[in-house]
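Quick one: Cell division ATP-binding protein FtsE from Derxia gummosa DSM 723, structure tokens please.
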Amino acid sequence: MSAAFIHLDHVSKAFALPGGRRFDAVRDVSLDIARGSAFGVIGMSGAGKSTLLRLVNLLERPDAGRVIVDGVDLTALSRSRLRAARRGIGMIFQQFNLLLNATVEANVAFPLEIAGEPKAAIARRVAECLDIVGLADKARSHPAQLSGGQKQRVAIARALTTRPGVLLCDEPTSALDPQTTRSVLDTLATINRDHGVTLVIVTHEMEVVRRLCDEVAVMEDGHLADRFALDDDAHQPATGLARELVASLRQPALA
Ligand SMILES: Nc1ncnc2c1ncn2[C@@H]1O[C@H](COP(=O)(O)OP(=O)(O)OP(=O)(O)O)[C@@H](O)[C@H]1O
Ligand SMILES: [Mg+2]
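--- reply ---
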């Protein structure tokens, strides 16, 4: 038994390559993430960050190990129970993945529509979620009429409709300029602090970690190379890369 909200227990994932070879993208990672934390995952390109994130909601099924979220072993669930459990795990992506021909409110309504919820309840929840991300006035707009930051906030609203306990964020601001990045980080901070949503954020931007995260894990060649709390000034980085990252994290934030 673990008290962690998210518990990865010796999780591994390999991908088949042409020619019958296999590539180990995530190798024997064990990781606990506390409820309510804003947890960063950093590392070089190809280190396995996105794969690790996708293992948390079983978008990738591990070859070995268990994925336990809120006390439930997702790897042991039937397809229908997994679908239900996934309502508790939201996800957003670098490229927003909005429906371009649908209005903002239709995009946000989408997860509730496919769940077959009553129309009045959907309308109410969509309004609440657009309010949380500060886009109540854009309900009738189309994505093309929004800035990148606003599009990402629509994606956040859509992810919140099912009241997830955790939001998985894969490079949520990497497609954005600094100004709109700020608005997205503010929104993520609000849902973490005021709405108690646990965040797991894959990013290559140290600024994102500095502004948002309380803990960070370092992925290196599929391994979990290091992990530390940002306020742990005594932490001794476990690898050379971790040392570089810690040094850059401790540089003063840009204005
Ligand atoms: N579906 C797949 N099939 C084959 N290989 C894959 C697949 N998905 C990921 N990989 C490989 O696994 C490794 C880890 O990929 P992953 O996307 O998790 O890295 P990442 O740390 O998120 O990198 P980036 O910072 O570039 O997004 C990479 O070498 C990638 O090419
Ligand atoms: Mg990635």
